[in-house]
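Quick check before the chapter quiz. The format below is the same one you will see on the exam, so make sure you can read both the input and the output lines.
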Amino acid sequence: MALSYYDDKSNFIRVRALISGRVQHVGFRYWACQQAERLGLTGTVENLSDGRVEVVMQGVPECVNEMKEKLRSGPSMAIVKQVIFYRERVKNDETYFGEIY
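Here is the expected output.
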């Protein structure tokens, strides 16, 4: 159900996820980028200094919700202990999903 980045964003939602557990040094950022791109989402993924990973994603609700479910388990080497989600305001100028270093 992935949509083009150029589709109308009036029905998009934006969610920030904070993921804790063994989520750094296990390929989480790379995996998140792959999953988000497959779902047609835009946003970012970043390792935080406290050991968590932050994912900010936006797109149609069905695809964002599917990504939320994927984040609950993460890539095969990860051990996700907790995921906290926050709704945010959609950014109309965002056009891709990428890593922040």
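If your answer matched, good. Residues 25 and 78 are 9 Å apart (CA to CA).
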